[in-house]
Design goal:
This protein is of the alpha+beta class. The chain contains 13 helices and 5 strands. It has a 5-stranded mixed β-sheet, with helices on one face. Strand 4 and strand 5 form a beta hairpin. The chain is rod-shaped and about 120 Å long. The chain starts with a helix and ends in a 7-residue tail after the last strand.
Length: 388
């Protein structure tokens, strides 16, 4: 929608052009039709002025503005012999660009009817021999003008619709990327901080009586911190690439299921006994699925350290089939969780993990076990290898 000043200027120019080109002010006396009495130029100008505010207002109520302009044009033609062309085109364009096709076609029919009267006015003073050709030429010209207004209006409407769709798609993409980054940050920070808090608490308790064990715990804190910083740096390199180029090496260093041994080792240092079982024949995984598989185990074990704590036991089962990888992480809930570790949970980890799993075409379920503890199950798609 244009500014008020621009809309006003366009309206004045269109009405002025109609007065100069399609009124009795400049017409050839040969075409003086049934309006035979003299008409003063000032009267023509004043009678055309009401079209200006209607054109300015047409964007707010295009159909009403068009209908009022149509009646106004009829009166101008019948009473003063003025046959506007540009103002009804502008009003018809606005209807076509803002309203549905059915309404547009109805307004087009009204415009053609008014222009039919204009054709009759033009050919009325001609001889019977001249009327057929002139009627055809004038009717063709006016029909072309009306059809052009409708077609350009529909094109503008479709362009605006495509633009709105693009804006909506960009908004969805931005939201999806924001959620992806939030999930990634949660997975990186939550696991690292939980392990570091548990190791620090263990080191503080063992510092006086078991300095060697305390030193090992602090070494584990350092290792986990270094790994977390490396993962955060990798993600930042992807989000803010140097000189506009994506760092593919950073993407390639995303955690994978092959790093499961290191992850299990970190969690074991917090006092949780972990057993890993695998069955079936391992199959290739897409990178996104591979990273998701790692994150599933990571989130599940992080929750074990928070809610079950040291002294609990957990089992990670990987079952491979031809089409899917099933991951089942179960704990017995027999440990003693640290209050500080439980307080670090915001309840969004499993929600984000379920979203991550769903995006890649997998499914996830979690439940409390009757005998105590918790179980998380995720089923992820496996890459199908094509035959030779």
């Amino acid at each position: 929608m244009g500014t008020p000043t621009r809309s006003s200027l366009i309206a004045v120019v269109l009405v002025g052009a109609d007065v100069m080109l399609f009124s009795r002010i400049t017409e050839d006396p040969k075409y003086t039709s049934w309006v035979t009495y003299p008409v003063n130029s000032i009267v023509v100008v004043l009678a055309s002025v009401p079209a200006v505010p209607l054109l300015i207002w047409r964007r707010r109520a295009p159909v009403i503005a068009f209908l009022v302009l149509t009646v106004h044009d009829l009166l101008l033609t019948c009473v003063l012999g003025t046959r506007p062309v540009l103002t009804p085109m502008a009003a018809l364009y606005t209807v076509s660009s803002q309203r549905d096709l059915r309404t547009t076609l109805d307004c087009l029919a009204a415009a053609l009817a008014v222009h039919g009267l204009a054709v009759a006015y033009e050919v009325y003073p001609l001889t019977p021999a001249e009327r057929p050709l002139d009627s055809l030429l004038i009717a063709t010209f006016l029909t072309f003008c009306d059809a052009a207004a409708v077609l350009v209006g529909r094109w503008a409407a479709n362009s605006h619709l495509r633009e709105r769709h693009l804006v909506a798609e960009r908004s969805v993409a931005v939201e999806a990327e924001r959620l992806r980054i939030a999930r990634e940050l949660h997975d990186i920070v939550a696991h690292a901080v939980t392990v570091m808090v548990l190791q620090s608490a263990g080191a503080r308790r063992a510092m006086a009586t078991e300095p060697t064990r305390a030193q090992e715990a602090m070494q584990a804190v350092e290792d986990v911190g270094v790994q977390a910083m490396a993962e955060l740096r990798r993600m930042l390199n992807v989000l803010r690439p140097v000189q506009g180029a994506v760092d593919n090496t950073s993407i390639d260093r995303a955690p994978r299921l092959s790093m499961l041994t290191n992850l299990v080792g970190q969690v074991r240092t917090t006092g949780v006994a972990i057993r890993v079982e695998s069955s079936g024949r391992p199959a290739p995984l897409d990178q996104s699925v591979d990273t998701t598989a790692y994150r599933v185990v990571q989130e599940a074990l992080t929750n074990v350290t928070r809610h079950s704590g040291p002294g609990s036991s957990a089992c990670v089962r990987l079952h491979w089939s031809e089409t899917a990888l099933e991951i089942v992480v179960t704990d017995d809930g027999a440990g003693t969780p640290l209050p500080r570790a439980k307080d670090m949970s915001n309840g969004l980890g499993l929600i984000g993990l379920r979203e991550r799993v769903t995006v890649i075409g997998g499914s996830m379920a979690s439940k409390s076990l009757a005998e105590g503890g918790y179980q998380l199950t995720a089923i992820l798609p496996v890459t199908t290898q094509a035959g030779p």
